[in-house]
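Reply to dn_fold:

You asked what the input looked like. This is it:
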Amino acid sequence: MDNCAMAGRSLKTFLEEGRLEDIKRRMKPGDYLFIQFGHNDAAASKDDRYVPLGRLSEYLELYVEAALEKGGYPVIISPVCLCPFDRDRKGEKEEIARLLPAYRDEMKRFAETRSVLFVDLYGLCEEFLWKAGEKTAVKCYTEDLVHLSEMGAGIFGQLLANEGKRFIIDGKTEV
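and this is what came back:
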């Protein structure tokens, strides 16, 4: 496993910094490329990283093609949700919370169109948090109720691992 994630990056800035090219150089046939973006892409107030919803598929295509070109399996993963119990969303946080479901839906539509694996981590996390209740949900995030705490990262990581089992361990490489 090679975690190439970098905080504060969008589909756009990750490309601009050459990070996808670096991944392509190291990728081998049969590798999985987990493609997860969203929070930074949806930040319209930050023009340097903003990816309008109408251009999301265009950017996703570049990542999918990079994996396929190397004989790998692209997996599009929706972003995690913001804490659903945050009653004081304002400004950029409010905008991102409002846009993330649309980004998730566009990712799913794109994955279906391209017959690429898709994990609705947004939906899995949101379902977990509503069932767990406010007290536990709030503990899954840092004080800003956007970024994950260590506990939240562990729980959400396990949700993703459980989904990943379907196509990695069980061998399902088709949607």
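The longest strand covers residues 32-36.
Hope that clears it up.
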